């Protein structure tokens, strides 16, 4: 698969007395750059979260946000409550001690026991439970985040393939023009030389034309353009972390297109070279977002 460096995902989980919220987002970057913005009660999770991210993500500027927000009690909502067994045992021992001295004392009712401070409380959030819940939610969040980067990467790869097809169409259109343009230019140059330098014989004129024709021959540039496009398609087909390799190929394609434009002796070939440069720039912009 090919992955974009742009992605976003968010998830929440109700923990009873609090709501856990996590968010991941990323943009393009030359390297892997991870930053965390976690609330104080989640700061201890930064290292395990960082390890999970580096296992799945190769490049990009990532930001992970997370906070644990206390949830106020709501009327009409009954939350799960559990009696504190330790407090019950202590309370029972205290009642027995009192009744041993004051046997006429009225026994505690269930309602009174439940109202006793510390007997009944909402399910507490221990650090262990917060870590377990947070890492479970983070695993699902990371899967969603990677999926968004994968979908975006697939779209970018399709754009690159479409531009590659158009590049090949431009080269196909230029192929029959190049020999004709070179021949026409040789004839124009020969006529100018005959008019300007009457003392030169035909052999010298042919030599001068041959030297200059070699300088404006673009067959080598066209061949390299074909080779770079073949490599581009191969890299896209292979997938994986292709961003840096494709960025290098864009530089090479642009170099050859520039040379083709500078050597052009035909208006039609120049137009084709400029169109190719435009397509390469469009591809380069997309490649900047690939991991």
Walk me through what this model shows.
It is a single chain. The protein has 291 residues and is of the alpha+beta class. It folds into 3 domains: 7-73 and 125-149, 2-Layer Sandwich (Ribosomal Protein S5, domain 2); 81-122; 153-287, Butyryl-CoA Dehydrogenase, subunit A, domain 3 (Up-down Bundle), CATH 1.20.140. Helix content is 62%, strand content 14%. It has 9 helices and 6 strands, in the order E-E-E-H-E-E-H-H-E-H-H-H-H-H-H. Strands 1-2-4-3 form a 4-stranded mixed β-sheet, covered by helices on one side. Strand 3 (32-38), helix 1 and strand 4 form a beta-alpha-beta unit. Helix 1 packs parallel to helix 4. The radius of gyration is 37 Å and the shape is rod-shaped. The termini are close together. The model is unreliable at 74-79 (pLDDT under 50).
Outline of this structure?
The protein has 291 residues and is an alpha+beta fold. It has nine helices and six strands; from the N terminus they run βββαββααβαααααα.
Features:
single chain; 291 residues; alpha+beta; Ribosomal Protein S5, domain 2; Butyryl-CoA Dehydrogenase, subunit A, domain 3; 3 domains; four-stranded mixed β-sheet; two-stranded antiparallel sheet; 9 helices; 6 strands; 62% helix; rod-shaped
Which runs of at least 5 residues are low in confidence (pLDDT < 50)? Answer: 74-79
Order of helices and strands: EEEHEEHHEHHHHHH
- Give the end-to-end Cα distance, rounded to a whole number of Å: 11 Å
What is the count of distinct domains? Answer: 3
Please indicate the percent range of residues in DSSP E strands (runs of 2 or more): 5-15%
Q: Biggest β-sheet, characterized?
A: 4 strands, mixed
User: What is the strand tally?
Assistant: 6
Query: What strand line-up does the widest sheet have?
Result: 1-2-4-3
Task: Quote the CATH topology of the largest domain.
Answer: Butyryl-CoA Dehydrogenase, subunit A, domain 3
So how many helices? 9
Indicate the overall shape: rod-shaped
Let me know the average pLDDT: 84
What would you report as the Rg, rounded to the nearest angstrom?
37 Å
Structural class by sheet pairing and helices = alpha+beta
**CATH top level label of the largest domain:** Mainly Alpha
Going by CATH, the architecture of the largest domain would be: Up-down Bundle
**Helix share bin:** 55-70%
């Amino acid at each position: 698969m090919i992955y974009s460096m742009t992605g976003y995902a968010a998830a929440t989980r109700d923990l009873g007395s609090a709501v856990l919220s996590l968010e991941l987002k990323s943009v393009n970057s030359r390297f892997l750059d991870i930053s965390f913005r976690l609330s104080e009660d989640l700061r201890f999770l930064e290292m395990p979260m960082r390890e999970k991210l580096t296992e799945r993500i190769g490049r990009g500027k990532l930001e992970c946000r997370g906070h644990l927000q206390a949830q106020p009690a709501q009327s009409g909502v009954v939350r799960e409550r559990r009696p504190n067994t330790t407090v019950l045992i202590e309370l029972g021992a205290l009642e027995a001690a009192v009744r041993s001295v004051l046997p006429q004392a009225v026994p505690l009712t269930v309602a009174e026991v439940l109202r006793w401070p510390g007997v009944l409380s909402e399910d507490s959030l221990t650090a262990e439970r917060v870590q377990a819940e947070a890492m479970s939610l983070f695993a699902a969040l990371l899967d969603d985040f990677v999926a968004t980067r994968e979908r975006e990467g697939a779209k970018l790869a399709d754009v690159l393939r479409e531009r590659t097809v158009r590049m090949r169409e431009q080269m196909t259109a230029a192929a029959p023009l190049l020999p004709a343009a070179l021949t026409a230019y040789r004839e124009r140059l020969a006529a100018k030389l005959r008019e300007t330098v009457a003392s030169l014989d035909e052999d010298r004129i042919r030599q001068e034309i041959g030297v200059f024709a070699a300088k404006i021959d673009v067959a080598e540039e066209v061949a390299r353009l074909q080779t770079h496009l073949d490599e581009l398609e191969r890299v896209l087909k292979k997938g994986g972390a292709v961003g840096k390799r494709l960025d290098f190929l864009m530089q090479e394609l642009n170099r050859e297109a520039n040379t083709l434009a500078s050597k052009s002796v035909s208006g039609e070939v120049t137009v084709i070279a400029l169109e190719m440069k435009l397509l390469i720039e469009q591809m380069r912009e997309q490649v900047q977002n690939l991991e």
